[in-house]
Design brief:
Order of helices and strands: HHHHHHHHHHHHHHHHHHHHHHHHHH
Distance between the termini: 33 Å
CATH architecture of the domain at 1-33 and 355-477: Alpha Horseshoe
CATH topology of the domain at 1-33 and 355-477: Serine Threonine Protein Phosphatase 5, Tetratricopeptide repeat
Helix content: 55-70%
Radius of gyration: 23 Å
Shape: globular
Largest sheet: none
Length: 488
């Protein structure tokens, strides 16, 4: 059952550099051939940050009213519609040109850039967001909770969990009774593998008194923590309640897409499809629902519809992970040329993402382990594990080590990813599959059979490429030997 052959072309043609910053610089250089002008162009439209003097208070009148409402629109964890974000950004750009020392206006502008980048997948917005948020800090100082919240949100969008933790902790320390720092803090702790602190932060968030605007986002954050603990029913209940209490179509669509994702993870395809389609009816610009719908259609055997849905999902600003999924679907159908084309588009999308400051090491490592150079995957993921040791990285590193033949070492990380005490108890079919394959390679037939069966029980459709591998592995392991128990 050796599946460690290296196929395809490495995502990076040169040998991987020992330092992550060098590798990222190389990605930025690649991305510059296709998009660096877009990344930097908008930065020049904003005024230079003020260097001294107190912040000028906002002018009274109609112009100040949208700004007073704006922070609720761009609070981390509260989904906003793209047209509203675009309009808000236009107003705030005009505001900071007229009042370059207006720290709240800079903070709202930066947060809106970050949220728009997250929603559209356009990482060119992230440098703009960082510049605006740092300008707000420079004007007001380090107790500027709005700017700190925005920087935490930006760090999470870039998958930089240490920075997100730092900014969110500073915001909480500055204003411990403000709820808005806690969702980012929970996600940062989760990304760093500190599940006890994530649960503690959720407890503190739930103890705060929040208004009706914030309550759906709080319930959604609780759902994420419950899902990581393996409490599926509680997670579904929280997200369903959040969708019912949502105040805007974009917000309701986000929570319905989350319910769809939970249904997908447990293999309930009709329920998943219903929720993904409901989310798209409410908000056609919803980011997670199109790929979720395509994934579900593929699992239902509606292959032509699935391919059309995937192609629509990746038509404009594709997420790299969606292009990877599409490539693997093509590969499972024997369409290797189309798969390679999708992987090539994924490389370009990753380059643009890295140019905007996003940490894509996890996705690159996953791709290299299965479709490129698994030794490069190990090097990248080991460094990523040292920096932010969440269970996603543990699982990917364990699998990459298996692909290079280091199965004893791989077992350590695969066990972390599936250990309820260490990983929070999330029920993930891919993690169980990886663990089972590694155990089979180490001649641990009993645990391997148990974990491969568990993967197919959790979600019999979890991957068009890996489900057949799991089934074949179980056939090779055979039935449980008919032996008497040890006591006899």
């Amino acid at each position: 059952m050796d599946n460690r052959q290296c196929v395809g072309t490495s995502l990076i043609p040169e040998p991987p550099a020992p330092r992550r910053s060098v590798r990222l610089a190389r990605w930025v250089l690649v991305a510059s051939l296709v998009g660096s002008v877009a990344v930097g162009a908008a930065l020049v439209v904003l005024p230079e940050p003020p260097r001294h003097g107190p912040a000028r208070p906002p002018a009274a009148g109609p112009q100040s009213r949208p700004q007073a409402q704006a922070p609720a629109v761009v609070t981390y964890g509260v989904p906003a519609a793209l047209p509203g974000l675009t309009a808000l950004i236009g107003r705030q750009e005009q505001r900071v040109r007229q009042h370059p020392k207006d720290a709240p206006a800079w903070a709202v502008l930066g947060s809106a850039y970050a949220e728009r980048g997250r929603r559209t997948g356009d990482a060119a917005d992230y440098p703009r967001a960082e510049r605006a948020l740092r300008t707000s800090l420079e004007v007001r100082g380090t107790r500027n909770t709005e700017a700190l919240d925005g920087l935490a949100s930006l760090a999470l969008a870039r998958r930089d969990f240490p920075a997100a933790k730092q900014y969110a902790e500073q915001a909480r320390k500055a204003a411990p009774k403000r709820w808005s720092a806690y969702p980012a803090l929970i996600d940062a702790y989760t990304g760093l593998g500190d599940y006890e602190k994530a649960r503690s932060a959720l407890d503190k968030l739930l103890a705060l008194r929040t208004d009706a605007t914030a309550r759906p986002a709080v319930m959604a954050r609780a759902a994420a923590v419950y899902r990581d603990r393996g409490w599926r029913e509680d997670a579904v209940a929280q997200l369903t309640d959040a969708a019912a209490a949502a105040r805007t179509p974009a917000e309701q669509a986000a929570w319905l897409a989350g319910v769809g994702q939970l249904a997908w993870e447990r293999g309930d395809l009709p329920d998943a499809l219903d929720h993904f389609e409901a989310a798209l009816r409410l908000d056609p610009g919803q980011r997670a629902a199109p790929a979720g719908r395509a994934r579900t259609l593929a699992a239902l055997g509606r292959t032509s519809e699935a391919l059309a849905a995937y192609r629509a999902a990746v038509a404009k600003r594709p997420r790299p992970e969606d292009l990877l999924e599409l490539g693997e679907l093509y590969e499972s159908l024997g369409q290797q040329g189309a798969a390679e084309e999708s992987y090539a588009r994924m490389r370009e999308a990753v380059g643009l993402s890295v140019a905007g400051g996003v940490d894509e090491e996890l996705l690159i490592g996953r791709f290299e382990a299965d479709h490129g150079d698994p030794w490069e995957a190990v090097e990248r993921l080991e460094e990523e594990w040292r920096r932010q040791p969440g269970i996603e990285v543990a699982d990917a590193l364990g699998w990459a080590l298996h692909r290079t033949g280091e199965d004893h070492k791989a077992l350590t990380y695969a066990a972390v990813a599936t250990d309820k005490a260490k990983g929070g108890g999330v029920r993930n079919a891919l993690y169980a599959f990886h663990l089972g394959v590694i155990e089979a390679e180490l001649d641990r037939a009993g645990p391997a059979r148990r974990h491969l069966q568990e993967a197919l029980r959790i979600n019999p459709y979890f991957s068009p490429l890996r489900v057949p591998m799991a089934q074949e592995a179980l056939r090779e392991l055979g039935d449980v030997p008919d032996e008497p128990p040890p006591s006899e």
